[in-house]
């Protein structure tokens, strides 16, 4: 009897997940069908694994961005934190001869501190997140360039490179393993914890959240700190995959993360959205990029496509909000 109840709950959650993401799932299916006809290599197992590996870094960033946007903010600094953490961590190992484990811890800590700094300035001094993270975007990027002198640093350590190029059981790339683990962890945090409830509450109605006793400042600080940590983690994994720390790495990554969120149904006004939608949005962007690469489309055109995706998703989001507001007013009358 109990097993039947569990199965019913599981099925209902799956149905709810499909319903809430029906639009983006249909788009993903349509794109997949088109690419299958255009290029025979698209549905091969090796290409599917390649797509999952490619989207892993975006999902690391998009998870943090999901929390930030649901909270009602934005984080433009994540791409620069990727560059800073990756460049400094590799530099610590190669140039300063710091042990790999300690260098990774320092790299993660530095990115986390940038996120905490964002949260403190935003919550304590009431400065808009856009302005604060725009400033720290330049600061973090500047640190990467100053430390490296604008040059990439090559690393030959097999232990370090295995972080981003290794496989679990010789089949699943380690970045994909990290990605799955983080998706599970943060899905639980958002949906099953008091902190997750607070994030939605602050993004939905800040004043109501304050009157309800939600510690708004602490929530804001923690959300931006998490975003900084995940960006630092993404930077270290990316540098291990590239066998180098590059100050140019991470350019435009914040846009990919934002695109994944808005494409996945996260409202830019805050308070609504799900991590599952973000993951699907990141997969769609990854499929588009991969398909365009297979077809031989220039990376310049890919930037145009991603920009259009963000614009269309934001327009749809704004129209949905307007329609829901109109419907609510009519219902009251």
Automatic annotation (TrEMBL):
Coiled coil: none annotated. It is found in: Cell membrane. It comes from the Bacteria. Keywords: Cell membrane, Membrane, Transmembrane, Transmembrane helix. Signal peptide: none annotated. Pfam families: BPD_transp_2. It is a multi-pass membrane protein. The chain crosses the membrane at residues 21-39, 59-88, 100-121, 127-147, 167-190, 221-238, 258-288, 294-316. CDD domains: TM_PBP1_transp_AraH_like. This is ABC transporter permease. It comes from Ohessyouella blattaphilus.
